[in-house]
TrEMBL record:
Stored NCBIfam families: yecD_yerC (TIGR02531)
Species of the source: candidate division WS6 bacterium GW2011_GWF2_39_15
InterPro entries in the cross-refs: Trp_repress (IPR000831), Trp_repressor/repl_initiator (IPR010921), TrpR-like_sf (IPR038116), YecD_YerC (IPR013368)
Protein name: TrpR like protein, YerC/YecD
Residues spanning the signal sequence: none
Amino acid sequence: MKSNMNNKIELYNAFLQLKNTDEVANFCRDLMTEDEINEFAKRWEIARQLNDGKSQRTIARNLNLSITTVTRVNRWLKRGKNGYKTVLDRINSLHHHKPDSAGL
C-alpha cells in the first residue's frame, strides 16, 4: 500500500496532466462532489477579493459567508505555503502582458 504522501504527489501530478479548463473541470467533478467544488470555488473567490484589497468584513457580507471562513483564507493567503499567491501572481502577470487589442 502506498503512503499517504505518495498518494498526494500522484494527485498533484495528475492535475499537471490536464491541458485546459474543461479537462480540469471534468477531473474535479469526478474527484469531488459538487458541494466540495463549490467550497473550493468560494475559497478561491475569497482569496481573489482579499488580493484585490477588499476588507474581510466586506467579502463576508458580499459572499454571505462567516467572517471565520474569510479570516481562515486570509491566514493561508498571508502565511500559508504561497499557493494562493503563486496562482494570483501568475494570473495578474498574464493580464498585464496581454497585447492591447485597441491597436488592431
